[in-house]
Amino acid sequence: MCTTTHDPAPLSVEECERARLARDPAYDGRFFTCVQTTGIYCRPICPARPPKPENVTYCTTAAAAELSGYRPCLRCRPETAPFSPAWNGSQTTVARALRLIEDGALDGPGASVDGLADRLGVGARQLSRLFRKHAGATPLQVARTVRVQRAKRLLDDTDLSMTEIADQAGFGSLRRFNTVFAEVYHRPPSDYRNRKRKGRGSPTGHRALNPEPLRV
């Protein structure tokens, strides 16, 4: 079950429902709509036909939605949502940790939650507890979502090879990239890119993409 639990002012289900039905841009990035009948999660501004209220639950972060078994909507593109203020909350430690994760603190060989916690001056268990409270997911689950979202932006906006994308997105290997992307989007990245190119007629021609802030 997805819930809205961000600090300091938790959103009620009723408030989320009003924002979703109104497609209120002021709430974009503050929560995500999880549609039980399709298994997809969306931004509150999604242009798709709104699902019935009884088929909807809510999450404060993309990582929490994916942890609950939902995959990202390909129409509203949750990876491009504004940075969620829910993740800042009242915990400076969580905000600092998120910035470090965006910068790749949990990517690559030897990276660990223990190492991240040491950099922040807290224990690993305490850090994980804060993440569960404010993000609805663990640091490793958040890092996984960050990597997938980086990869999808690179697939959408560049002509980089799959190996280059896997490396730039922070995956340890092409095999791991293929596995995780398929788990989230229910199709391999090569298939996703081919479908996108068929839909738009030609690739973008860009060869590089500056990393964006975390979008959840």
Report on this model:
The protein has 216 residues and is of the alpha+beta class. The protein has three domains: 13-80, DNA Methylphosphotriester Repair Domain (3-Layer(aba) Sandwich), CATH 3.40.10; 85-140; 146-200, Homeodomain-like (Arc Repressor Mutant, subunit A, Orthogonal Bundle). The protein has nine helices and four strands, in the order H-E-E-E-H-E-H-H-H-H-H-H-H. The chain has a four-stranded mixed β-sheet. Helix 4 (113-120) crosses helix 5 and helix 6 runs antiparallel to helix 7. The radius of gyration is 17 Å and the shape is flat.
CATH topology of the largest domain: DNA Methylphosphotriester Repair Domain
Q: Hey, roughly how much beta strand do the residues contain?
A: 5-15%
Helix- and strand-based class? alpha+beta
The percent range for helix content is: 40-55%
Shape descriptor reads flat
Mean pLDDT: 83
Strand order of the largest sheet: 3-1-2-4
Region (Disordered): 188-216
Organism: Pacificispira spongiicola
Cofactor: Zn(2+)
GO molecular function, one term: sequence-specific DNA binding
List the helices and strands and how they pair.
Blueprint: H1 13-22, E1 32-35, E2 40-42, E3 56-59, H2 62-67, E4 71-72, H3 92-102, H4 113-120, H5 124-135, H6 139-157, H7 162-169, H8 174-185, H9 189-200
Parallel strand pairs: 2-4
Antiparallel strand pairs: 1-2, 1-3
Would you kindly provide a brief summary of this structure?
This protein is of the alpha+beta class and 216 residues long.
